[in-house]
TrEMBL record:
Pfam families: Methyltransf_12 (PF08242). One of its GO terms (molecular function) is methyltransferase activity. Keywords: Methyltransferase, Transferase. It comes from the Bacteria. Signal peptide: none annotated. The keyword Transferase applies. Residues 60-155 form the Methyltransferase type domain. The lineage of its organism: Bacteria, Pseudomonadati, Myxococcota, Polyangia, Polyangiales. CDD domains: AdoMet_MTases (cd02440). GO terms for biological process: methylation. This is Methyltransferase.
Length: 276
């Protein structure tokens, strides 16, 4: 690991560790304990495109506290969750145990996933919204995905659209303004944010983070280079949290889209690719 990689990983690990107690409250984990059929809003949205995963070996990269991971298990998959935050995995393991779900959780960075989990083990690599922006090397990520998959295995990725990540914070005049890079920049972009994306009291103990935007062309090209064949790419006008304040409205599925003319913004996308 280079000194640059050590630096940004350490900063982001401290940031995500500090989010865990707030997310443990804000993710409404009691709803998963109380309802054995409960799925996360993210997986519920993905379900139609994801298809039948019963009996499949699925790895959820960057799984955080495991609500989406648990939801995949409830769809019948044999699921492994991987994340670099041990405090997050502690919550995920406890939630799985309380819900009677047999899920393996492994603490590792994405780049070390093959060493931690083994090559060629999985039918599906699943990655949810807000994951790729924490990785500086998308080619290395794509190669890792390919190495984890069995021959014919599938990547399922729903992610924030790089156009969304490039927008400025909410403005009083409601204008959408491009403020941050669409393309990856060396060193990433440093943010200092005292609050996370769920409502909570108090400030984050480690408010600094470094993120990296990756254009769609960069992502698709990296997948091609890793011998992953693109099978679907769908852009969506909605996102599962509110990044733009009063300019967005929530629908009955928990998704947020622009209040006025939502067709102006691709907020997320779903990408699927097959190995070989």
């Amino acid at each position: 690991m280079s000194s640059h990689e050590r630096d940004y990983v350490a900063i982001n690990l401290a940031n995500w560790n500090s989010r865990v107690p707030h997310h443990e409250q804000g993710y409404e984990l009691h709803r998963f304990r109380e309802d054995p059929r409960r799925l996360s809003d993210v997986v519920e949205f993905d379900r139609a495109r994801l298809g039948d995963v019963r009996g499949l070996d699925v790895v959820h990269l960057q799984c955080h506290i495991g609500t989406d991971t648990l939801s995949l298990a409830r769809l019948g998959a044999r699921v492994t969750g991987l994340d670099f935050s041990e405090p997050a995995l502690s919550v995920a393991r406890r939630l799985a145990a309380e819900c009677g779900a047999d899920i393996e959780y492994v603490c590792s960075t994405v780049y070390d996933a093959v060493a931690a989990l083994g090559a060629g083990r999985f039918d599906v690599v699943y990655t949810g919204v807000g994951a790729l922006c924490w990785l500086d090397d998308i080619q290395r990520w794509a190669a890792t995905v390919a190495a984890l998959l069995k021959p014919g295995g599938r990547l399922f990725l729903r992610e924030g659209h790089p156009m969304l990540w490039a927008l400025a914070e909410p403005r009083p005049d409601g204008l959408l303004v491009v403020e941050y890079p669409y393309f990856k920049v060396e060193g990433g972009t440093l943010f200092h944010e005292k609050q996370t994306y769920v409502s909570h009291e108090g400030d984050l103990a480690a408010p600094d983070s470094i993120s990296f935007n990756h254009g769609l062309g960069e992502i698709v090209t990296a997948l091609f280079a890793a011998n992953l064949r693109l099978t679907a790419l769908t852009e969506h006008d909605s996102v599962p949290w509110n990044p733009l304040g009063d300019g967005m409205v929530q629908d009955e599925r928990g998704e947020w889209r622009l209040r006025e003319r939502p067709e102006r913004l691709a907020a997320t996308y779903t990408l699927q690719a097959v190995k070989g």
